[in-house]
Amino acid sequence: MYYRTCPDCGAHLDPSEQCDCKKEKQPQENEHCFSKSSVTK
Fold it and tell me: What are the residues facing 12 on neighbouring strands?
């Protein structure tokens, strides 16, 4: 299998895949902002 390595972050990419490491990360809908201390058992 052939892959490229992103020179900026080291991610392994398919030959035609573009790395998104320089794009600003957008929060996804199913990500929650809970810290471990705020979760009660």
Answer: 5
Structure tokens at 21: 């490491």
Q: How many CA atoms lie within 13 A of 16 on its CB side?
A: 0
Question: Rounded to whole angstroms, how far apart are CA atoms 23 and 29?
Answer: 18
Task: Kindly state the helix (H) or strand (E) to which residue 4 belongs, with its residue range.
Answer: strand 4-5
Q: What is the pLDDT of residues 2-41, one digit of tens each?
A: 899 999 999 999 999 999 998 876 665 655 555 555 555 5
Distance CA 16, CA 32 (A): 32
Distance CA 25, CA 32 (A): 15
